[in-house]
Input
Amino acid sequence: MQTNTKQIKQHLEYITKRWDELDGDSQFEIRCIRDGHIKSKKFNVQQIDDAVVFAKQINQEQYNVYTTVNPVNKRANGKHASDEDIIGSFFVYADCD
Output
């Protein structure tokens, strides 16, 4: 299966398009999981192209790749974003499998 970088970029642009309505700096996290090992990296809206490159690279390493759909406070101190780090909500996703 090929990584569809165009679709990744479109998705990230879509979920971040209203973030300028918020007060404060925001970012999204790409979280990658494989065999219980977690890697993550945070990006701001201006770094979407960098996030796409990261997602493609890490996916080629056989990680499952996820992203936060709501903005994370740029001052979040934890290694991975938590519920307390979310500064606004534009989407609610459900995983139904």
